[in-house]
């Protein structure tokens, strides 16, 4: 084997190993009530930035449709994550709130914790490990 083919095999092994060891999170959103607007999912790894959408580790959006929607986040490191989901019914790009506190659009959190006051990271947090995808089901509340 020459040097070029050896380097090529080494690079292929590194790429394969990185892809094989990356974690994946599948977020299943249940209970979308109508097809207006979009369903948005934000994935967090840092409790200090939890619920600050612009500081999420990753975000995804899909046009809303009634029932269930699935979002997949790939290439993640193993660790502890939490998810915030909301149905941006009016398409203004943010979760609307009454008096700046109470959501007026559908929303949900990983682990579906009971919430009194601003949600915290830990009740919504779940562990992700390398290998098989981690699935979390989020029930929207309207």
From TrEMBL:
Keyword Signal belongs to the record: yes
Keywords in alphabetical order: Signal
InterPro entries in UniProt: DUF2141
Annotated signal sequence range: 1-22
Protein name as catalogued: DUF2141 domain-containing protein
């Amino acid at each position: 084997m020459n040097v070029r083919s050896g380097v090529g095999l080494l690079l292929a092994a590194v790429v394969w190993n990185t892809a094989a060891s990356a974690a994946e999170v599948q977020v299943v959103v249940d209970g979308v009530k109508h097809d207006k607007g979009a369903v948005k999912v934000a994935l967090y790894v840092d409790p200090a930035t939890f619920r600050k959408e612009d500081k999420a580790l990753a975000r995804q959006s899909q046009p809303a449709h009634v029932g269930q929607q699935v979002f997949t986040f790939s290439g993640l490191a193993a660790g502890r994550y939490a998810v915030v989901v909301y149905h941006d019914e009016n398409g203004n790009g943010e979760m609307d709130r009454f008096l700046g506190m109470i959501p007026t659009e559908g929303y949900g959190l990983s682990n579906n914790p009971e919430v009194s006051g601003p949600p915290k990271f830990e009740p919504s947090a779940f562990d992700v490990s390398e290998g098989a995808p981690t699935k979390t089901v989020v029930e929207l509340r309207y």
